[in-house]
Design brief:
The protein has 117 residues and is of the alpha+beta class. It has helices spanning 10-19, 25-29, 41-48, 110-113, and strands spanning 3-9, 21-22, 33-34, 55-61, 68-73, 79-84, 87-88, 92-97. The chain starts with a strand and ends with a helix.
């Protein structure tokens, strides 16, 4: 299994479970859902989600994603996985609470540490 990760608000994920698919805001604005590899998730959290609460981290089995996934270079020179379409919720095999600490930063959950790249 090849796992990619995505950070979202808890309520957006709850809504997706009811609808049967997940639709990130970036799908409308940029045409894809931003994801990360396990080695990238803390950088992404620090850059875009500092001090935010009520977030969850989606663990996605990329082999089960129905939409196209492309690994594309971001401005920091790394390749990030992007999902070009809605995410079918059956591709998500684990959801972990992911909130910033009091200092605004994030601690890597053990479930991410346990992933083998």
């Amino acid at each position: 299994m090849n796992t990619i990760l995505h950070i979202t608000k808890s309520q957006q994920w709850e809504d997706a479970k009811i609808l049967g698919s997940y639709h990130a805001d970036s799908l409308d604005s940029e045409g894809f859902i931003h994801c990360s590899k396990s080695t990238q998730i803390l950088k992404v959290a620090k850059r875009f989600f500092n001090y935010q609460k009520e977030l969850v981290l989606l663990f996605i089995d990329s082999e089960k994603v129905q939409a196209e996934i492309r690994y594309e270079e971001a401005e920091i020179g790394e390749l990030f996985p992007h999902i070009y379409g809605e995410l079918n919720i059956d591709a998500v095999y684990r959801v972990v609470d992911f909130e910033a600490r009091k200092d605004g930063l994030f601690k890597l959950p053990q479930e991410v540490i346990d992933l083998k790249e």
